[in-house]
Amino acid sequence: MAVSGAKAILDTSIYLVFLRKDPPIYELSFLLRPTLLYMSSVVFAELYAGAKDRFTMRQLQRVYRTFERLDRDIAPDKQVWFEAGQVLQQFGTRHGFEAMGLARITHDVLIALTARKIGAVVYTRNKKDFERIRDLRDFDLRVDDA
Per-residue pLDDT averaged across 58-69, rounded? Predict the structure, then answer.
């Protein structure tokens, strides 16, 4: 019987390490083994929006095509969007953020809730924001402090 792996979504902060420093992709030793990586459309949008040159855009297109071919690209559905609105309202009430602050964290909420829906772990370097989100909605989180 085949053993299924743990599902994981890497936050933008993890991918940026690879795009900026260009380490080999197998340097993901912090992941649980075995791991099935999924690409959040939210993460992809953040990465692509920040691409500064053609080389990076080509790298990102290859990454996206790979996840798409494996059927491991995931997007927030209407249920996730609705719940994200609730979380953002609670977040603003609890932390006193103005609308601009809530807009900044919206992507992270969508990533967290999408991961929760598919039973995936979120890996990030953005400890503060994701732990605040987890205070409002439980999801599996691993912080890479490297």
Answer: 90
